[in-house]
Please model this.
Amino acid sequence: MRVQVTPRAQQRARTVQQWWRANQLSAVTTFADEYEAILGRLAAMSPRSPIGVRYRNVRGHDVWRVRLKASQQNVFYSFDEAADLVVVRMIWGAKRGPVPGF
Model:
């Protein structure tokens, strides 16, 4: 499947990576490593076997959540099966509180 990252999710990825570089210098696994790995897994998966847990339905699309353990970020995504596409909708820190709308 192709993976498309929304502009909002791209901005959050840049923000998280900047923070990670500035504050987690001794970490073995970085956000960038985890994020790159999950994008690869999303591209390789089937909509019939999604990764993570179903989060909720947004405008007729099931949104799924995958937690990145080391960076404690959640990646929210949905499918467009007709286009053979995974859409990464948001990246949000597990401890940041309520997730903003998609």
